[in-house]
Write a structure and sequence with these properties.
Blueprint: H1 3-29, H2 40-45, H3 47-66, H4 93-109, H5 112-141, H6 143-151
């Protein structure tokens, strides 16, 4: 896939997938971003995971396009295994970042329903990764992915970045 096509595809998937999961569904669940009444400093803490998660999502999508020459979408996977940036710390940064965004929204809007949604999103992500993504990555990238998989945790980030030998 050409770089321009990968960037366009990743951008489209970002808007459709992450946009629906992290914007449209929370908007619907909260009745149009209606907020609850929690202690304001607690609510403001929600900006931290929300901003950090958004930054990781954008960086990871860019890496899929620019380094992997593909997209995070299963229909247009990357040609190269992406193991840089946030992927040096954890194998599934996009899923974790979406959960962080949802939890941040839960705090910011003081809406417990978003914590339940975040937990459900994580459970669905876990099932998808184990049942579909990892077997596909083994088939597609073989020993390169297996080496990466042994060195980098799936869900709990490493303290230090992984450097492939």
């Amino acid at each position: 896939m050409r770089k321009a096509t990968a960037v366009l595809g990743s951008t489209l998937f970002l808007v459709l997938a992450a946009g629906c999961a992290a914007v449209l569904v929370p908007w619907w669940l909260t009745g149009g971003w209606r907020t609850g009444h929690w202690w304001p400093p607690l609510r403001l803490l929600g900006l931290l995971p929300l901003a950090a998660g958004a930054a990781v999502i954008l960086q990871a999508y860019a890496r899929f396009a620019l380094e992997g020459l593909g997209t995070p979408a299963p229909v247009a996977p990357p040609e190269r295994l992406v193991v840089s940036g946030p992927y040096r710390y954890v194998r599934n940064p996009i899923y974790l970042a979406v959960v962080a965004v949802l939890a941040g929204q839960g705090l910011l809007l003081a809406r417990p329903v978003l914590f339940a949604y975040a937990a459900g999103a994580w459970a669905v992500s876990l099932a998808f990764v184990r049942g579909y993504e990892e077997p596909r990555l083994v088939c597609r990238f073989g020993s390169e992915y297996e080496r990466y998989r042994r060195a980098v945790p799936a869900w709990w980030p490493r303290h230090t970045p992984w450097r492939d030998a």
